[in-house]
Amino acid sequence: MQDRSANGRIRRGEQPLGDTPPELFRNQLHQLADWIADFRQHIGELRVAPNDKPGAIRSALPSQPPEEGEEFETILGDIDRLIVPGMVHWSHPMFLGYFGWTQTGPGILGEIATAPLNVNAMTWRTSPAATELETVVVDWLRQWMKLPEQFGGVVYDTASVGIMHALAVAREEAAPSTRKLGLSGRNLPRFRIYTSDQAHSSVEKAAIALGLGEENVQRVPTDAEFRMDVAALRAMIERDLRSGGGRIKPLAAVATVGTTSTASVDPVPEIAKLCREHKIWLHVDGAYGGGFAILPEYEWLAAGWSDADSVVINPHKTLFVPLDFSILFVRDLERLRRVFTLVPEYLRADTIEAEKNYMDYGIQLGRRFRALKAWLIWRSLGRAGMAARLREQIRLAGLLADWIKDDKRFELAARVVLPVVCFRFVTGDKSKIDILNSEIVERINASGRAYLNQTKLRGQTVMRIGFGNVLTTEQHLADAWQLIQTTAEAVAKGD
Ligand SMILES: Cc1ncc(COP(=O)(O)O)c(C=O)c1O
Predict the structure, then answer these.
(1) CA of 313 relative to ligand 1 center, distance in Å
(2) Which of 83, 180, 190, 454 has a Cα at 20 to 30 A from 57?
(3) Can you tell me the mean pLDDT for 201-215?
(4) Alpha-carbon distance 260 to 427, whole Å?
(5) What is the DSSP pairing of strand 453-457 with strand 326-331?
(6) What percent of the chain has pLDDT over 90?
(7) How far apart are CA 395 and CA 477, in angstroms?
(8) CB within 8 Å of 271: residues ≥ 6 apart
(9) Whole-angstrom Cα distance, residue 341 to residue 364?
(10) Contact at 8 Å (CB) between 106 and 381?
(11) Pocket of ligand 1 (CB under 6 A)
């Protein structure tokens, strides 16, 4: 090895070929293992979020790309010095934003174990174990969700990609040959998609991507608990059928199990009934809430799913699989394959097997081996281990809701259905309450001591806490609540 010194390090000005020598690589892996273990052990001592101005991190990084290779130690040192302090630490026990997060030891091991394999899970031939393991873990989730066997699934990165594929199938079935001919110049009706005013914006994104048009996503009002008003949905569908003179066709309804702001749950069985009546595709967005159906006491969340056409669940939100890992289930997965299968000539010899070729189930050809990390974490925790952790999130959310109810300066802004708590500081000048709530969240996040969100409910600004981190204990929550109370008082006094 002329290009390395005796200890295997790169000598300045020399370009090594091939890979890192095995002993050096082993050494680096040990260093990285220590780095990961230290990070995980001490994450609670870090600021949850930085308070830097945009661009501050970039200005500390070299803007010129490297000409010569650098030592691993130097790069790791820069991660510590420049990257870690610039992160919002989603896995921090005081990170209470969004939907908490799914970081665990086994999850990290799953990511690490996947890295050296680095396969392309596009066809069975290119990766038999990745393909078959994907089928296995998808079916584990189907069983946990008690979805009928008719449902088959595919792993995507995100729920946004899942809904786009689901609605592509709905579009093809409502306007046959769209995959071949496209939508334009065919005198097709205007297709409508219905979803609640609390549903995620991925519905519009899917409509944009599929050429259905953002404006054709109709937002249905919700009831006092932020659930889709089914009578209003019926009225909207009937209005479209009447007023369009046959030029408007209801295409799909998207029901949400665990909405983004309050985690409310739409009445899926009633929506499913209406969809069947009008032959409308029903997609269930269980990206967040779906995973809680592994708890027997939350099986009601999955009511009506067996009548849906598609269901998306993000185990990276609730079921402890590290980002990214989302599963789309379709009743009769062949419907999805029919829309997306397209075998390029150079892969024809790779696709003759009877097994699934997952490239046929979506627009991606190259696919990561995501199933391995799910397999590792789900085997490590088991359903019971996940259930216990989800129950703890639910317990903590209930506790926080009780503390809020006991403090007259605050009020709950929505019923707590899943471990997401929306609340509002309501003391002082009524005209300033929105600004006060926003300021409280900004100040806490800037402090680096905790991290939460604000959202709007019926036009009012509220604070929002989402649980999920396995490191968050009752003591962390008590500290966060005290921080919220003292910050609220200070902001209200104008300090
Ligand atoms: C209810 C709901 N659906 C869908 C999504 C989109 O998820 P993804 O980031 O996996 O696309 C989110 C994101 O938070 C969500 O809250």
Answers:
(1) 9
(2) 454
(3) 97
(4) 26
(5) unpaired
(6) 89
(7) 11
(8) 228, 230, 233, 253, 255, 282, 304
(9) 11
(10) yes
(11) 158-160, 200, 202, 256, 258-260, 285, 287-288, 314, 326
Residue 178 main-chain phi, psi, to 5 deg: -65, -35
Picking from 321, 262, 311, 327, the residue whose alpha carbon sits closest to that of residue 99 is: 262
From 163, 198, 202, give the residue whose CB has the most ligand 1 atoms within 8 Å, as the site to mutate.
Answer: 202
Q: Which residue's C-alpha comes closest to atom 16 of ligand 1?
A: 260
* CA 258 / ligand 1 centre spacing (Å): 10
Which two structure tokens, joined as six digits, stand for 288?
Answer: 């967040």
Q: How far apart are CA 195 and CA 230, in angstroms?
A: 10
Question: What secondary structure, in 3-state letters, does the chain show?
Answer: CCCECCCCCECCCCCCCCCCCHHHHHHHHHHHHHHHHHHHHHHHHCCCCCCCCCCHHHHHCCCCCCCCCCCHHHHHHHHHHHHHHHCCCCCCCCECCECECCCCHHHHHHHHHHHHHCCCCCCCCCCHHHHHHHHHHHHHHHHHCCCCCCEEEEEECCHHHHHHHHHHHHHHHHCCCHHHHCCCCCCCCEEEEEEECCCCCHHHHHHHHCCCCHHHEEEECECCCCCECHHHHHHHHHHHHHHCCCCEEEEEEEEEECCCCCCCECCHHHHHHHHHHHCCEEEEEECCHHHHHHCHHHHHHHCCHHHCCEEEECCCCCCCCCCCCEEEEEECCHHHHHHHCCCCHHHHHHHCCCCCCHHHHCCCCCCCCCHHHHHHHHHHHHHHHHHHHHHHHHHHHHHHHHHHHHCCCEEECCCCCCCEEEEEECCCCHHHHHHHHHHHHHHHHHHCCCECEEEEECCEEEEEEECCCCCCCHHHHHHHHHHHHHHHHHHHHCC
- What is the identity of the amino acid at 391? R
Ligand 1, pocket-test mutation among 165, 217, 227, 288, most atoms within 8 A of CB:
288
**What pLDDT is attached to residue 12?**
55
Q: How far apart are the first and last CA of the chain?
A: 65
- Distance in angstroms (rounded) separating the CA atoms of residues 296 and 318: 16
Whether the predicted model's global pTM rises above the 0.90 cut? yes
